[in-house]
Amino acid sequence: MFPPTNLPVPSEVLLITDELLAPADFLLHRQLAAHLKESKDSRCVLISVSEDLGRWKSVAQRSNLNLAQSLESQLLTFIDAMAHISPALDEKSKTPLKDLYIIILECLKRPHLDETKALVVLDDIAALEWMGVPLADILRFARALCAICRKYNASLIIRHHITTPGEPDDILRHLLQLCTYHMDVFSLSTGRSGSVSGQVALHCGAATSEPTHKLIPRSKAVQYRLTDTGSVFFDRGTGSGVL
Amino acid sequence: MPSLLSSAIALPVRNQQLLVLQSSSVQSCLPILRDVVKKAIERARERTVLFCLLYPPSSFLDNAARAQTDNVLVVDRTMRVPDYDEDPDGDGESVTSLKDVVLDKVRSVPTGPLNVVIDSVDTLLSDLGSISEATRILSELLTIVRTRGSTSRLVLHVLAPSPILPILTQTRLSPSLTHVIAHPTALLTHLASAYLTPPPPLSAPEKFWGIFIPISERHYESEKLVFGQGGEGGGLPEFVAEVLVRGGADGSGRRRGVERVLEGWSPSLGGPCELRELEDLRILWAKKPTTEVQDAPDPTQNLSFNLNLTPQQQRARAQVPLPYAHEGRPVGQTPNPAAILYDPDSADDIDDDDPDEDLDI
Fold first, then answer.
1. Which of A4-13, A68-77, B63-72 has the lowest mean pLDDT?
2. Does B104 touch chain A if contact means CB atoms closer than 8 Å?
3. What does pTM read for this prediction?
4. Cα–Cα distance between B122 and B131 in angstroms, integer?
5. Fewer CB within 10 A of the end CB, N or C, for chain A?
């Protein structure tokens, strides 16, 4: 049964990595939908670097989720990261991501009922490096973000694009140390296929002592296929039964 | 033979006061660090100071363990990220305050055996911003630990590659050192298949170490094995631990030089184990069944027609004249013996003299 429910739980960090041939947008939309549908008080902070809100709204519409309503009721907060980073980059300030960090902190500090779960989604951290933010600042921002999500008992999802499969870059090396779980979306080794869009593996992060979810190594990765309404998961070799 | 790893974790050997645990992006050594902290806390007479700079304290001890024991002091600095501190005191403050916090906390512990654990020295380095500052702090910590008694220990965890790692392993910092490096099991299976060198005792130690050490130091090789095509993707629970012990004394008090062994770590087996007990490496130890040399299948067997000849048929065949021109008999003498006939043309300058006859050798 994939993807497992209760991933991530509050104060845990889920790292989702994807490749060019196997993007993980569907997983993010799925997690957002699952979180908002879980309870009518669940809050979400969505930080988007490259995508705009329209795309999120239209995909959420397909799973019967009205994001406009959530935005109005302040259950969903959409933060356009570039609006806060570009002025700092232009000024060449020492910490271009500080303003973004403060905005996220304000959203998390907002008073809420203790039982509601908060979800913070950062999509995506690789684009920050591509925009020209220095590596050291990105790593500190990631550390600080993980720390405040832990402090305010929010679950955190970070998406990272892998441009060189097989050769992890510095951001990925550090994110692997910070995350509790790592969901690895990668393409089939045999190339593109019409019926299978890609594969997903689940690993635990460096600091996770006892994983509560069953881990899936790459050799036994679950395959998925994107459909109009979402995605379908199946084990290798059982595609004919599902599709 | 007692496991070096388990003895390094469980009870600090006399004069082995520096323990360095090295992880990489492909394999984390944190399970060993967790075990070290757990065993240190269980020793009631000793006090432990645990600095959490990168990993949350819950990675090392659960809240129940924290509440039960009072001989552990957890300093949680995961929220104090430079430039992102919630209550900034000023730019230069955070640097000095980190050094002061570290040294003050350690000095404030009452007398007695002391274990100081730093969960991420590379984070300490990046927060301080200077290798010399970090080295100074570590030297001071080591000095404090040495004054506390022979079972006191400084335990450092580093994520390789890091510029501070060579400094930690130099004898200048500490002549005696226990260095544990975590490697993925994929590295050993790769060496066994691509280099035909399984780990000792299956192959000669000199040959193995000569191949293993350079490859293990090239991190991109291990990364490609684990994260590349055909890799399992990291985060595996079982791994290989390379244990290097330098200096110090063993049980009988004799000084030993440098010992380097490969041992395994398996959570299902309770921690340290031998290499052969790791699931992924079992195939290296499995005896290969002896395969007899298979002859190629004989096509002349089991046919529906007879390929053999009766004696009369053989005689008749022998009498058939063969259509060869010379029938094996040597041909008569050729009229011209073998020679090279050469007609020089106008551009040639043929000189029948020996060109070397004017040499006087």
1. B63-72
2. no
3. 0.83
4. 10
5. N
